[in-house]
Structure prediction request, 280 residues.
Amino acid sequence: MQTIYLCAISNVESGTCNEDCKFCTQSVKYKADIQRYKQKDIDTIVKEAKLAKQNQAMGFCLVTAGKGLDDKRVEFISKVAYSIKKENLDLALIACNGTATLEQLKELKKNGIDSYNHNLETSQEYYPNICTTHSWEERYQTCVDVKSAGLGLVTGGIFGLGETQKDRVSMLNSIASLDPMTVPLNFFHPNEALPIVENTLTKKEAFELISLAKSMLPNVEKLMVAGGREVMFGDEQYEIFKYGANSIVIGNYLTTTGENTHKDIEVLTSRGYNIAKKCR
Prediction:
């Protein structure tokens, strides 16, 4: 029986980013119609963590908008982590707060963060086409520092940004070189406000990319299909597990609505999948 790992996301700071990533509605440059706020109330985040646990998530990811960590964000995420850990929910806490220094990452670990998520997004070669305000190399170095800080590394990317197959292979090779614990595969979800107009991937190509990632990343514990699952795969979204995925995000994403959590659990159970109770 295949075991599926569930993870939930909390958008703890939304739509305040000054970077120009062409795939992201969180950027203030594109004026997408999304909720924008500085810091979510900690009590609200704790309630979301409890709900995630009730919905059988074993991971809970704290996401902020913006290029990376600063002292204020480190303090806020540390307070959130402390408040959640105090509830003894047995949830793995993942921080996703952009580029970070080794010292900042060590501070998060000290305060209860278990893993850090920072995606490479695409290949080193294609990256300047989707972002000009910070470099791919900064992203890669953050991932190196995550492991040096003793945190679990979560790093992946996004498909359907106009990249070539060569770019996809290059990105997966770069991810493999980092030897991460978890790899989230995202599929571009178009928004009329963004410079990238459409995701030109077919469903067949998307399934094949999951298989490719599985073959190129054989040691990864969790190969997660994250953002864009519902839009990319539609009625066939639960077929992803036949292609090598063993993890999904439940509930809503950062600025888009996800599948109904109860439906996810009901379908997984009815198909004979085992839902993981712990990260390992």
Confidence is low (pLDDT under 50) at residues 253-258. The beta strands are 3-13, 59-64, 92-96, 115-117, 152-154, 157-159, 182-187, 222-225, 247-250, 274-275.
